Amino acid sequence: MDLGLAGKIAVVTGGSSGIGLAITRLLLAEGASVATCARGPKGLADAENRLKSEYGDRLWTMPCDVLDPDQVKRFTESVLNHFGSVDILVNNAGKGRVSTFETTTDEEWREEIEMKFFGVIHFTRELLPVLRRSRAPRIVNINALLARQPESHMVATSAARSGVLNLAKSMAMEFATDGVLVNSIILGLIESNQWRQRYEEQAEQTDSEREWLDRVACEKGVPLGRFGKPMEVASAVAFFCSEQASYITGSTLEISGGVGRFV
Ligand code: NDP
Fold it and tell me: Measured from the CB, is residue 165 less than 6 Å from ligand 1?
């Protein structure tokens, strides 16, 4: 199936590692141009070095914190100067917070709610007028299974994710008149940098990273028995971004190896 992504211009937030890097790589491989950001210039430069030889000027990067509206504005203006337009926005940047109700401070609640909501709001607000000019505009929000299946050890992330899933539905309804399609992907356990960091912080010395990931997948009862790969998420994102997904908006796709228990 031809996804019709050749010649499209995408903005992917948090493209320096994990899922965002895989999405960036796949959209480039499908012929799109991609502008991506992260806060850390080194991670971004490493990602650029890995992809630039293959995809050349179709990849453009610039450090940007999605929580800083001025930086988001500057990033958007620079993307438009470089590529001229944008067809696709993938709101991916972020990570989860491990804390229970009793251990989460007010400041941590505020940080988490700010991260999850404004990680979507700032870029969407800046790019909406630009997306409206596209022939097939798409927004994809990377969300978590926690939005529908909360975990008490990730209480703030679960609650904030649920709100952002609700927000995506409102965005889909409001933007539909302009043909801007908004969809969400809710993830279970996906191999990425944040899991590597958790392994380095928590794993017993005797476990290799692979053994630890397999054990976590087993303890969580993932029916497919393993973590997902970032590319397995990227494939679904590419579909939502494609010309083929022209009648899909306001929908939510679960990518979790079957660990979701809701119907
Ligand atoms: P990684 O840590 O591998 O990647 C996160 C990316 O986001 C990095 O490029 C990071 O770069 C960037 N980032 C983080 N905060 C900001 C910010 N404020 N502004 C700009 N960029 C930022 O994690 P994942 O690939 O796992 O995470 C991607 C998304 O998927 C996240 O939203 C995460 O919550 C979600 N998710 C992941 C799951 C998983 O199991 N992996 C499960 C459920 C949801 P830098 O730090 O340099 O800014």
Answer: no
* Beta bridge partner(s), residue 138: 88, 181
Residue 205 in 3-state DSSP?
coil
| Ligand 1 pocket check for 148: Cβ under 6 Å | no
Decide: 62 and 78 in contact? Cβ < 8 Å: yes
Strand runs (DSSP E) across 6-134, as ranges? 9-13, 33-37, 59-61, 88-91
pLDDT digits (tens, 9 = 90+) for 20-30: 999 999 999 99
pLDDT for 207: 86
CB 65 within 8 A of CB 39: yes
pTM, full prediction? 0.98
The token pair that represents 47 in the structure block: 């990602």
The rounded mean pLDDT for the chain is 97
Burial 196-234 (b: 16+ CB within 10 A, else e): eebbeeebeeeeeeeebbbebbeeeebeeeebbebbbbb
pLDDT-derived band at 74 (thresholds 50, 70, 90) equals: very high
Question: What is the distance between the alpha carbons of residues 100 and 104, in angstroms, rounded to a whole number?
Answer: 6
| Beta pairing class for 33-37 and 59-61 | parallel
Q: Which of 49, 54, 50 is nearest to 31 (CA)?
A: 54
Q: Is the shortest distance between the CB of 65 and ligand 1 below 6 Å?
A: yes
